[in-house]
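Revision sheet: C-alpha cells.
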Amino acid sequence: MDEYKVGDISSFLNSSSSEQKATNDLFSSNTQPLVSVEEVYVKPLVEPVKGKRPKKSKPVEPEPEPEASKFPTLSPEEKLEIDKRTLFIGNLPLGYKRKQLRKLFADFGKIQSLRFRSVAISDLKLGRKVCLKTNKVNENATCKNAYIVFDHEECLEKALSKNGILVNDHHIRVDRVVKSKQQIKDDSKNSIFIGNIPFAATEEDIRSALEQCGEIEYVRLLRDAKTNIGKGFGYVKFVDSSGVMFAMKIKDTVEVNGRKLRIQRCKSKVTLENTKKAKELKAKQKDEAKNNFRGRKSKSSDKEIFSGKFTKSKNKKFDSDKRPSKKNKQKTMSKQKFDKKVNKASKKGGVVKKGKKEKQ
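Predicted:
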C-alpha cells in the first residue's frame, strides 16, 4: 500500500461533491449526451445458433457465347460434296511423310487438306494422339493410309492415274471415297475374295502370289483399326475379268507363307441384297405354311373337310353312291351281348345271327 500523506482525507471528502455536480449536469435538459442511444450496442438475450453462415448470393453473370469450333457441323449434302472431292491412298509406307505425299499429288491441282490414318501404335493405354506425338509406333506395322481433299472434282479424276505405282517398294492403292452403283458392279465383276490369309501377310505377298493370273489393279487387306494387324481376309481386283477366270482355275494351289488361300468370286452389294430379300421371303413362306393346318393353301376350309363335304386328298365332293350307308353297315358286338340277344330271341321264338336279327 502507498504511504499516508497529509491532506488525503480532506481531498477525498471534497471530491464526492464535485462528482455529484458532474452527474447532475450530465442528465440535465440543457446538456447533450455524449453517445446516441442508436450507437449503444445492446447484447441480445438469445445467442445466435453457431453454424455455417449462409453464403452470399453472387450476382448472375451472363453466359459467354460459345466459341466457333474448328470442325463446324455440316449438312449431309455438304458432306457428300466433300467426299466426292476426297481421294483415298492405301498401302503407303509407314515412314512416308506429309511433304512427300503432297509433292506426289501436287501436279493434279490445289490440295485443300491432307491427313494420315490407320497408323498402328505400340501402347494402347496412352492413346493414339500421345503415341503419334512421341513416335511410339508398332514396329511390326509396314503401311498406313491417307486421305487428300482437292478443291475440284476434276483434280481427283486426274489423280487416279497414280494407282498401282511403286513408292518405296509398296504398290499404293489410289481410289475414290464415293462410288456410283455402276462402278461398284464393275469392281465386283473383276474382283475375287481371298480368305485364310496369314495375319502377318502384306499386300505385296498377295500380289506376288496372284500375279500369274493377270494384271492386278489393287490388293485390299482388311486390318484392325487399333493394331493394324490383318483380319485374315481381303480382296484382289484385276484389270480384266480374265484374271478372275484364271484365279478360279488355280484356286486350290495358291499358298502364302505356308497357308492355302481360299478364293471365291465376289458378289456386288446389289446381288447380295437381292439374295438376302429372296431368303427372307422364302423363310416367311415357310412360317405361313407351318401356321396353315395342311401345310399348303387350300381352296376349302378345314371345317368343310371334316364335315364331309370334301376329301383330304382332292378338293372334290364325295360320291354318295360310293359312300357306305348306315343301314348296310354291320355292327360288331362282344360275346356277352351276343349271348343275351340269343336268350331274348329264343324266348320270343326268333333266330339271331351275328349283327342281324331274323324272325322265323
